[in-house]
């Protein structure tokens, strides 16, 4: 029997998502977000529940451009780490990305070994086409600024690695 299941997040999940990510925000692994941000983006989120209905994992896919999406807020409760929850979430987000027609996924992470095991590589100084850059730089989204490696997000992203995966 499956110990957990992945599903689309609902607005009623937002308080539980915030509770799940709170320890990671306190450790400065994830950036904190206001409740309104979670509600505005709830359609981007997938959650994982155990058989008792407890929320044990969360992750989001945010579309950044015609071919590019970002994996955001990927988190698993401490007692479920190493049990495939993160893998199941990432697999679902990748399937969602393919369904949307995306060919690349970006993430900004401290969890380099996890994402490397799942086919992500360090972006290094990789950039985008200048015309795409000119469009993306107009975005007010912090994730886009992180992808573009803009100076204004540097204080919040120190120590993180910009990683990308090409979807096959």
Automatic annotation (TrEMBL):
Statement: the UniProt record of this protein carries the keyword ATP-binding: no
GO cellular component: cytoplasm
SUPFAM superfamilies to which the protein is assigned, alphabetical: Acyl-CoA N-acyltransferases (Nat)
GO biological process: L-arginine biosynthetic process
Pfam families hit by this protein: Acetyltransf_1
GO molecular function, one term: L-glutamate N-acetyltransferase activity
Record-listed E.C. numbers: 2.3.1.1
Domain of life: Bacteria
Domain N-acetyltransferase: residue ranges: 4-138
Name by which UniProt lists this protein: Amino-acid N-acetyltransferase
Organism: Cryobacterium zhongshanensis
